[in-house]
Batch of 2 targets.
Target 1
Amino acid sequence: MSGADPRPAGPLPVVLAGAGNMGRAWCAAIEDDPGVELTGIADIDRTSARAAATATGRDVAVGTDAVELAAATGARAVVDATVPAAHHPVTTAALFAGLDVLGEKPVAETVAQALSLAAAAQVSGRLFMVSQSRRWNPQLFALRAMAADLGAAGTLTTGFFRAPRFGGFREEMAHPLLVDMAIHAFDAARFLLDAEPVSAYCETHNPPWSWYAGDASATAVFAMDSGARYTYTGSWCAPGAQTSWNGEWRLSAQRGAVRWDGDHEPVPDTGPAPPVAAAPSGIAAALRAFTDAVRTGATPMGEVHENVPSLAMVEAAVRSARTGRRVLIDDVLDGAHAEALRTEPHPDVRAALAGWPSAREALARVRDARTAAPP
Ligand SMILES: NC(=O)c1ccc[n+]([C@@H]2O[C@H](COP(=O)([O-])OP(=O)(O)OC[C@H]3O[C@@H](n4cnc5c(N)ncnc54)[C@H](O)[C@@H]3O)[C@@H](O)[C@H]2O)c1
């Protein structure tokens, strides 16, 4: 990671890549955080970059290439809020330019690209952290602590029922709910259960009244390596009795159960809910964890190796829905590893990928090594 370089004593200078909807939210979060200094905004659409810069009320540099802009403005890191298809090229270029990267979810468009990014982080020695904004929720942290007190987990369920009318690409995708939204819940499930996925079985459908071209409803069952089962049922065309955007959750465990409506404090069945301490949440919390990690060399939650299994759950669920079969996560990871080796253009990244005993082992080994021994 970034341990070899002198670490900045003052605010961390960063360039924002991507000035769309999330880019503007990141711009506000960066401007609000005294530990970070926004030195530039890059977007292939210069007009969007300029509009975001103007909204800051400061004279922020703009450009179309994040790495060039970082070099010109002295930035040490990039916040990548571009479209998913640009995550791999933008983040790879930044890592090999010696910049640390905080990227929006999903880590990349495919698991193969995600593995390439994990290897690129290793080879470049830079930090690449993925911001899963819904994981950075103090209520979810409280739920996790309650879950740990309940002993072995049996079944974890998420219900997600909303009826947003986005227009645009989401209404044209084959699997809008699974690909664009469910990763938040899948990622939170891994965090809550402190367990990794083993297999996925998923069915999707599109209700007759749906305004989406693809399947807007899905039910997925994951076997986890702890023995627990995680079940996700959701729909993006579900008018009435809508759930929180976080979904509604129930954990059934060895010594009881706990429920969370996604918006308020989780409620254990063993007694009253303890109050949840106020703390930064969402992208503001992810940004703080990232800057702390750059300064200290510690491994933050969401470091690329730790994040990849959340995307593997999405890919496994989509594959299961398409084939009607249960899909092993190892088959997704192994197939992605082979594809990454076939398509990787960077010789050092290809050599790193070739040295992995398996994708699952490489992800776990690096994750564990970094967690165990921060520099
Ligand atoms: N955490 C959340 O809750 C949440 C919510 C919405 C979106 N997202 C994620 O945020 C990311 C951006 O989504 P959005 O809704 O802002 O999309 P958007 O289409 O509104 O904006 C993306 C921007 O990236 C720019 N861009 C594309 N390629 C680029 C490149 N190579 N270099 C620089 N800029 C480039 C586009 O011109 C566009 O302005 C996606 O990964 C999405 O999944 C996360």
Target 2
Amino acid sequence: MTRYQSLSLADAADLSRASVDVTAVLDHLVGDADAAAATSIGFPGAVDLDYSEVITRLGNRLWNNIGDPLDEGGTAHTRVLERAVIAWVADTLAMPADDRWGYVTTGGTEGNLSALHAAHRRHPTARVYYSTAAHYSIPKIVHMLGARGVAVNVHPGGEMDYAHLAAQVSRRRRWPAIVVATAGTTLTEAVDDTASIRAVLDEHEVHGHLHVDAALSGIPLALDGRLRLDDGSGIGSIAISGHKFLGVPTPCGVVLIRDSVRKAAGRIAYTATLDTTVTGSRCGLAAALLWHAIATHGREGHHWRATQARRLAAYAVDQLNAVGWRAWRYPHAFTVVLPTPSEQVRKKWVLASDGPISHLICMPGITHGQIDAFVADLAAAAPPRLIPRPRLRPDGPPSPSGTR
Ligand SMILES: Cc1ncc(COP(=O)(O)O)c(C=O)c1O
């Protein structure tokens, strides 16, 4: 028996004893994670990029980007790399250079909080509309802000029901609207159509703010030219996760907000920084990791990664259907939706489930071999109860701005 196998990590009190074998504990954690990796296909973290250069060179000291990314000074920081990341993501989204601001966050949730906080400061009486397929962080943030939230129904595939949005807006037209569109819902990777949302607001003559929660799909859709924050888009802000498509080995993300939406922030005397971000101290290592992904692969490299991952997702749908498991996906998606299999299969493959449907996600780095092994397990399992495949809107050509 190896040292790590003989160690139990169940007892936290044992682990904080001064005599604990630290190396064995770390070996145990790495061993468990390595053992689980081959069957981890349910959560959206890419596993194909190698960040060891950054971890080796920078990983053993504090890099603190406290304050605003445009601040200078302080001790060791990576704000110059953070500014490069913000510029790259904003350029990829065609965001106007004279009306943009952003920073590297702890993840999609902080990005949503930062953007909705800015929108709520500008429109304090606004009602906040979001679909029932929106991430759970959205209603939580609405509650934290003390705002009024309005849930909007979705179509069976997870995309917002714009007729229901119109009905909800029409009953509240005397208040401004903050609408959260999701670009890549958590369960099915559905993309809300920002042009349809804008049309609803225009028709009801309601002004406000349009935020896009693009935690998973922001970068791949932007690289396709299908998600744009240009002037015509009417989109005021976007939040993206860094540990999803870019597979950064620490939770992180990027938020971008139109500068014209933000209100002035205070200067903190003792840090000599502007208080523009949700947290004070901020992880400079995350900014360096994001920058490394961008600098080493560029737009073409990341577009290629997205294309390969989508091909694998299409392959997974074909293979599942061939063994009688009725699976489907959106044409842009890495996510493959299928009827929920037995608990044994779900646990082994770490699938995310919501009642009758589950998903696997073909993130960059997942292999044909993993998909084949998963399909073999399903082929051997009890046949699924059939779930109807939702009628998806045709995946039309990109609109000149916004999402489609
Ligand atoms: C649509 C959506 N928004 C936000 C989040 C939250 O992102 P994070 O875990 O980076 O805070 C997720 C995570 O799964 C998500 O799917």
